[in-house]
């Protein structure tokens, strides 16, 4: 049987007093009297059988026991606040928070997001960028777009499109990269966290190619922007940089397009996939993907 917890007010009083180092300041924050805070902390100490504070002339100092309790208690309060906020959003909130990879956000989503906003003006989209796996149980995130060979187990997953790679360059190298051998003479730009040039080079039979020098960035979007500015030749999916290619700022010197073995996925908890705001965004993604095929 689980041990009964102390009263929540006593735990909150201790956390506030520990944070401020003062019963007076804690009382002011919690809108009670300093005597009430002192009484609640004393009751908690008696319940636990330990002393949590040393009462000093100019404030409070945590004992070893109080110092050990504080981090876990703060974490518990943070998790409760997050859970309550998440339930509030799920019960009818119209804020849609999405975690994305920078390249997908800037190259694919942002240029067309205005169409979603026009169609669903009542849904406020909030976006954050990250490459780590989202912990939907603890993070304030409704959905994510991730770059992976396969989505994590237990999630609703919608494949957006497979990832493909091909060399891309700006005007500076447009006329200097005509054959595969020319790649030996120019800087090759790659992604630092997951090098992709070896994938393309092996697929076209150039695994032994040694570039003259190379650059690395933490985002494909940044790598391609560097290529546009003349820093070298990058690898990327041409469908994500269609506008730059059509405008004549970016060039695809070779027709060989190689699948990387990964794909772009829209994911969210299976239990929330059909919530109205998430369902609306999924339907809009389908529309945009269909638009890309026309």
UniProtKB/TrEMBL annotation:
CDD domains: PBP2_GcdR_TrpI_HvrB_AmpR_like. The keyword Acyltransferase does not apply. Gene3D superfamilies: Periplasmic binding protein-like II (3.40.190.10), Winged helix-like DNA-binding domain superfamily/Winged helix DNA-binding domain (1.10.10.10). Residues 6-63 form the HTH lysR-type domain. Keywords: DNA-binding, Transcription, Transcription regulation. GO terms for biological process: DNA-templated transcription. Pfam families: HTH_1 (PF00126), LysR_substrate (PF03466). The keyword ATP-binding does not apply. PROSITE patterns: HTH_LYSR (PS50931). InterPro entries: LysR-type_TF_proteobact-type (IPR058163), LysR_HTH_N (IPR000847), LysR_subst-bd (IPR005119), WH-like_DNA-bd_sf (IPR036388), WH_DNA-bd_sf (IPR036390). GO terms for molecular function: DNA-binding transcription factor activity; sequence-specific DNA binding. It comes from the Bacteria. Belongs to the LysR transcriptional regulatory family. This is Transcriptional regulator GcvA. The gene is gcvA.
